[in-house]
Design brief:
The structure is a homodimer of 395-residue chains. With 395 residues, chain A is of the alpha/beta class. In chain A, 37% of the residues lie in helices and 18% in strands. In chain A, the strands form 3 sheets. The first copy, chain A, has a 7-stranded mixed β-sheet, sandwiched between helices. Chain A starts with a strand and ends with a helix. The interface between A and B is large, with 75 and 76 residues.
Chain lengths: 395, 395
């Protein structure tokens, strides 16, 4: 029996959400049992507006661009669905002969996914989740599509900034990384290091209470030693009182706006240590970077899209596709896919475990680096520095 | 007669300063008349400390890394030389049989270059300048090595952020670009555009007095139309009073510290328009980006290095190597090199001319785009957006 597929994107973009969409399309073509792959244009609102576009009508050479297009090519939203919205969906799906609904997103979208699944259970529509978030904070899965690329971006960028700061070592440079509650991206900056002494020199994660005194002590010591210090800090750092370390600037409606953590830390260094400091906040430049897209991440995102449709066509709904890392004896990296009941996923936000953070809370451990390494893809470029070359000659 | 070369790097790094160094090394090898290519380690201070490293002792495969190593592989400094420092140099150069001194840097370094030239005139040492600055603010030359890569970075990054903001169009995103007095980098963000309506939607240059009212008016209008707006603003914007638009945060010694322009503008949008806004400030991530290094810029940087040594070996000192753009009938891009008397270069800081800025002062003109286009190298990636694909189908 032929049926149609509907793909819905939710929440903030990543560098590979479109790669998962490409996987769904390719899987649909190969299955020979799908008439149309509809996109809900503009996210979940697109469902209610019945704003569907069949992607199978576009030629393969256009569709292939999905693999290297950041953000989402079909739009997304942060629209909060109400119960009546869910109730309306089965009839809409029936109208368009949609039998498989795939929701691609983070924790919030997986919650939506579970609710659409519940609303459609009786109607024969199968609902499956595809994980996606740069934040890597979804439970159970080893990691999420989107994270590997965000990790590659921050590692490569920190390496480049590190070389810059080292070559004119007159200041402290604070790089702000995305991830408000979970420090996975911030932590991945450690992958910038190739040699002892390489940047980043200090890493501050939201999983640890930020201690201003220790921070200034650590920066001062490193500055005295090196002249140039690179700090990578999460945008979500909080102090002992549980409040963001940056004082709120103003309130607007229900939202409170804070300044940038990186600017705050740079200002602390200038004011309290009298050391020149600056801050970089690449922000969205990171999650949208195709130059630093991880090929591993891209391939896994395609795979997750394919598997989601496979599961749906086998009638396995109410699950999210997850990655389980294989424990290979020779240590090589591989994963297998798992269909994880959506309610297990929705239970918690995954933060960095203790064994990945060093004791002083200003760096990650080798265990984290080993875990993260395969996700970012090929080795980063080698740079040359003649101070180091000279040292090698002298040895 | 054999002689040695000394290369000195000054000021802030770029993505291709090392490429010019590579050009010098290759030219020296090919000349057959150079024994050693010394690097002054750590910039001009390295001269006074006689901290010289012969780069010809390293194998070609290591030296080749210079082409794709950001910042400077031999170090730089912002050390201000005194008259007695200049006076000491001829004897140092003689001691090491240094006959050709090449200074690579921006306006400040060219000033130093002129002074070393004057100090060495009698001693038979030839001093030549190699231009280098992401800011593109050196006079007479059509553009400077380092600019094309900084321009490619901001164009590509703005394109990626533009796609991100468009796919979840719920806010105004302000990207801050480097270049405090000259808006060349900020302006290059316009190269992100491929189709009408593409980001950046507004561009604010330091060459124009920033008008807060007009800014808010323009943002509001675009937000009402699109939902997602991308603004690119120079870090050096100033108001009608000539002061930076960001109020000073604090003073430290002689320096006054200001907050980030991008954060300031985003806050204005939130507070005065009640529209969600965020700011990105890639900063050093831009000037150190090898992923977005412009191949045209790299090739020209190598060329400038080669030509500097050629000029020096021909005994033509007191000049800076500049680029003159050829006026080709078929419009194709090419340059020829010019040896520009250093005192002409030192006369002024080159800012964006009026014909490159639109009347309202919130964008560049097509003339600027045409001028800048060849410098950033190959076409940027095509992205796919199914809202646009649908429109094309409907036409």
């Amino acid at each position: 029996m032929q049926g149609n597929v509907l793909v819905v994107h939710g929440g903030g973009p990543t560098a590979v959400i479109n790669a998962s969409l490409y996987g769904v399309i390719e899987q649909a073509k190969e299955s020979g049992a799908v008439d149309k792959v509809y996109a809900a244009m503009g996210g979940s609102e697109g469902i209610l507006k019945e704003d569907f576009l069949d992607l199978l009508q576009f030629p393969e050479e256009r569709l292939k661009l999905l693999l290297e297009t950041p953000a989402t090519a079909i739009g997304s939203s942060r629209y909060a669905l109400e119960q009546e919205d869910y109730d309306a969906m089965p009839a809409i799906f029936q109208k368009y002969n949609i039998r498989y609904v795939l929701l691609n997103g983070g924790n919030g979208t997986m919650d939506t996914c579970g609710k659409i699944y519940a609303a459609c259970k009786e109607s024969g529509v199968t609902v499956v989740g595809i994980p996606k978030t740069i934040d890597n904070d979804i439970a159970i899965t080893d990691h999420t599509p989107g994270y590997g690329s965000a990790a590659r971006y921050i590692a490569a960028t920190t390496a480049e900034v590190g070389v810059d700061v080292k070559s004119l070592p007159i200041h402290v440079c604070v790089i702000e990384a995305m991830g408000r509650n979970a420090g996975w991206i911030t932590a991945a900056s450690a992958l910038a290091r190739k040699n002892p002494g390489d940047a980043p020199h200090l890493i501050y994660l939201p999983e640890r209470v930020f201690n201003e005194e220790e921070f200034l002590e650590d920066v001062k010591k490193l500055y005295d030693e090196k002249g140039g210090v690179v700090v990578v800090a999460s945008e979500g750092l909080r102090g002992p009182d549980g409040e963001p370390i940056v004082p709120p600037i103003f309130k607007c409606g229900r939202a409170t706006y804070y300044g940038d953590v990186s600017a705050h830390l740079a200002n602390l260094v200038i004011q309290k240590l009298g050391i020149k400091a600056r801050n970089e906040k690449p922000g969205i430049c990171g999650r949208a970077s195709i130059a630093w897209q991880s090929p591993v991440d891209q391939a896994e995102a395609v795979l997750a899209g394919r598997e989601a449709l496979k599961a749906a066509m086998e009638g396995v709904g109410g699950v999210m596709i997850g990655f389980i890392r294989d424990e290979n004896e020779d240590g090589h990296y591989s994963i297998h896919l798992k269909r994880i009941p959506i309610e297990e996923v929705m239970m918690y936000e995954r933060i960095i475990p203790d064994n990945y953070i060093n004791e002083r809370g200003n760096d990650v451990t080798q265990e984290f680096v080993d875990w993260c390494r395969p996700l970012i893809g090929p080795e980063l470029r080698d740079f040359i520095d003649f101070h180091d070359e000279r040292k090698k000659l002298e040895q």
